[in-house]
Specification:
This protein is about 40% helix and about 15% strand. By secondary structure, it is an alpha/beta fold. The strands form three sheets. It has a seven-stranded mixed β-sheet, sandwiched between helices. The protein has a three-stranded antiparallel β-sheet with strand order 10-11-12, with helices on one face. A two-stranded antiparallel sheet has the order 6-7. Bound molecules: pyridoxal-5'-phosphate.
């Protein structure tokens, strides 16, 4: 079976986990501090590690200061995690349409949905690419909005010569099992804003003030104050140990993903009945490889036939404005999202694939589409 995605784990990760188990300090301590330091070097900015990418987004939304009913603009075409993180913080996710060329949020459409309650915009770096991010930052500046980048797909990607997370307002990453690097589960918040960093550090530890410093010096807080709602969102040493090992291998893993995506591009280039999204893979580290089938092609049938050849595929994503919980949040239609999303299909992409696998997948796909 050629899996759609998977964790790619070697002896280094296994040894690192055994090391933490041998130390018998499994919670948040030295390994988490080291992983945060390494990530701080990677991004060139302060980093707060947490237990999932969703928690990172949730804490970031809470940290900008949400009043009940505040609205956050977010593309409907994203994982439900972006929406859940916003509503968990007491804000209202407002689904926005996509630019069909990039599949990223359309800045003009987002602008048309701004109200007096709009507090922030959350662009999602779909597949690792961030579209016209400068338009999002111009919009945010002119309308006084915070920007929380959902960079779950974009670890290691560059925009305009700069690494994602190294510039801008707030960026949140995911280290779940199948992302560009993993810490088992995990995620982080990156920002230059000391208030955001402080609030996320406290809120990940049940709101216990300055508990991060205590834990990093091997102590605990016995007497403390709590000023706002916190959560049990800190990262454990086991997770950080996996993350540290993965970060060391990241350059090779990034190259592998880029090479596979480029090979898909080359082989799909001449194929009818579909389009692929041309991206600059010397700058982008792809998390998923997505194609768009022609409207006369039945996606369910294609997926079933590929599966019968041992090839798993995925759907990124069902639009969130079509989910019962968020259906009431839309005040006007999202024509591009509705037109494009039923035809998106994700092909296998992970570091344990090789070029032969890509050739097999594209060959099988061509057979099915020619029929
Ligand atoms: C993976 C992902 C998240 C959430 O990350 P988890 O670590 O799985 O909680 C958020 N947004 C997008 C777009 C994702 O793909």
């Amino acid at each position: 079976m050629i899996r759609l995605s998977k964790s790619c784990i070697g002896q280094d990760e296994k040894d690192a986990v055994i090391g933490v188990l041998d130390n018998e300090f499994l919670g948040m301590g030295d390994e988490v501090r080291e992983f945060e330091d390494l990530l701080k070097n990677f991004f060139g900015r302060p980093v707060v590690c947490v237990n999932t990418g969703t928690s990172a987004l949730h804490l970031a939304v809470q940290a900008i200061g949400i009043n009940p009913g505040d609205e956050i603009l977010v593309p409907s075409l994203t994982y439900v995690a972006s929406f859940q993180a916003i509503s968990a913080a007491g804000a209202v996710p407002i689904p926005c349409d996509i630019d069909p060329e990039s599949l990223n949020i359309d800045a003009a459409d987002a602008e048309s949905r701004i109200t007096s309650k709009t507090k922030a915009i959350m662009p999602v770096h779909y597949s690792g690419s961030c579209g016209l991010l400068k338009d999002i930052y111009s919009l945010a500046e002119s309308r006084k909005l915070r920007v929380i980048e959902d960079a779950a797909h974009a670890f290691g990607s560059y925009y305009d010569g700069k690494k994602i997370g190294s510039f801008g307002d707030i960026a949140c990453f995911s280290f779940d099992g199948i992302k560009n690097i993993t810490s088992g589960e995990g995620g982080c918040i990156v920002s230059d804003d000391p208030d955001i960093i402080r609030r996320c550090q406290d809120a990940r530890l049940l709101g216990v003030e300055y508990d991060t410093e205590k834990r990093f010096s091997g102590e605990r807080s016995w007497e403390f104050d709590v000023r706002e709602q916190g959560w049990r969102y800190h990262m454990s040493n086991i997770m950080a140990a996996i993350g540290i090992a993965q970060l060391k291998k990241f350059p090779a893993m990034a190259l592998k993903r880029q090479e596979l995506a480029l090979s898909y591009d080359k082989q799909l280039n001449e194929m009818g009945s579909l389009r692929y999204f041309s991206r600059n893979y010397s700058k982008i580290v792809p998390h998923i490889y997505v194609i768009q089938l022609s409207e006369n092609i039945n996606r369910t049938m294609v997926r079933k036939e590929l599966l019968s050849q041992g090839i798993q595929t995925g759907i990124h994503y069902q639009p969130n404005h079509q989910l019962s919980f968020y259906a009431g949040n839309t005040n006007h239609p999202l024509p591009e999202t509705e037109r494009v999303s039923p035809y998106l299909l994700s092909l296998p992409l992970h570091c344990d694939l090789d070029l032969k696998d890509v050739a097999f997948v594209t060959e099988q796909l061509e057979n099915i589409l020619l029929r």
